[in-house]
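Obj.: predict assembly geometry.
Materials: sequence records (below).
Method: joint structure prediction, all chains together.
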Amino acid sequence: MTVLILTSEEDVTGDMVVSELHASGAPVVRLDPADLPGKAVLSAHYAHGDFDGHLSVNGQVLSMGGLRSVWVRRPGEPAAHAAHRSPWLTAETRQALYGMLFSSSARWMNHPRNAELARLKPWQLRTAHLSGFAIPPTVFTTSPRLAREFADEHRDVVVKSASGPPPGDPALALPTTLIGPDADFSAVAAGPALLQRYIRKRADIRLTAVGTQLFAARKRARPGQVDGRYGDTGHGWEAVAVPERIRKSVHQYTDLAGLAYAAFDFAEDGEGVWWFLECNQGGQFGFVELATGQPIAQAVAQWLTCLTGGGR
Amino acid sequence: MRPFTLKYVFPQRLPTVVTPYRFDARRQLNVLPDGRPAVSDRALLLAAGTTTSTAGSKTHFDD
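Observations (raw C-alpha cells):
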C-alpha cells in the first residue's frame, strides 16, 4: 500500500517525511498537481461495474486500489506547469485528479473538504471556543463604528489578516500589528478588518498535532513583541510539555474539525495561560523539528502508514 | 478606499537564497551535490529558511 504526497518539488519539509518513509520501506509517490498534465499521467476508469484509477510520475506508478493515504502538503495548482495553462485547464485537471482520489478509500491528512473549512478564521475561533481554549476578544467587521467601539473597550488592539498578505511584486508582508489609540477606522468599510485584543505575551507557543500525538515548542518573546514570525527575538524554539487542559482542547478541536494534522499558535501570557490565536491546518513544522529535535516528520510518516497516531 | 488592514502592509525584502540542492526524481527528494539528501544537512535548511513559518507560497497562507 502506497502513500501519496501532494507537494512541490522544492518542498524540503516534504523531503523530511519522504526520508522517513524511505527508511521504513513504505512505498511513496510524490506528485505536484502542477505537473499534471505533462510530467504526470492520470487515468480513472469506470468500467465493468467497478472503479479503478492510476497515477504515474517520475517512473512511479500508483493504483487507486493500492493507495493507503494522501498527505496534502504544498500542492501546486493543477495544470500550473502545463504548456498551455488556463483556468479551464486547471478546473478540468482538478476534477480529474481530486475526483479520482476522493473515489478511493485512502485516509487523508488533511481532507481538502475539512481543510477548506478549517482555514476560515471566524470558524476557527468558534471551534476553539467549543473546544475550551482561552480566546482573546476578537471582532471581524466592516463597520467603522464597531471597530472603534472594540478598540475603545480593549485599548491595546492588534489587526491581522485572515488570508495572509496580498500577492504582489515585490513580495509584501502583513504581520499582526498593534494599532495606536488614534487609529482612523473609516477604511474598515472598504474591507473586513480582523481586530483582536493584544495579549502581552512572554512566549509564543507552536503546538503541532499529528493524529493523537502532540509536539509543543516555546519561544520566549521580547517585551512588547507582537508577531513572532517577524524579527529576531534573540531566543530559539525549545520543546515544552503540553498542559493536560490544552491536550484535551486540542483533541476536541481536531475531532470537531476532522483534522489529522494541525499547527496551533498560542500566546503565553505572564500567568502562563495559553491564548488561542489560530490553527493552521497546513502549518509548517520543519523549523520546529530542526530547532527542537521533536520527531514530527516521523510521526507524520507513521500516521500515513497507519502505524500509530489514531484515526483522525 | 484602501481597506484598513492594508495600511499595515509593507514590502518584504526576500533574501536571495541559492539552495545548493536539486530535486532527484528517482529518489523523490532534494539532494546535495554529493548525493546526500538535503534534509541531512540541518544547518543548511535552517540557513535557507525553507522550513520556516514565513516560507509559504502565495497559494499557501496558512503556515
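Conclusions so far: The interface with chain A takes residues 1-14, 19, 21, 23, 25-30, 37-39, 42, 45-46, 48, 50-63 of chain B (CB under 8 Å).
To do: check interface contacts against the pulldown list.
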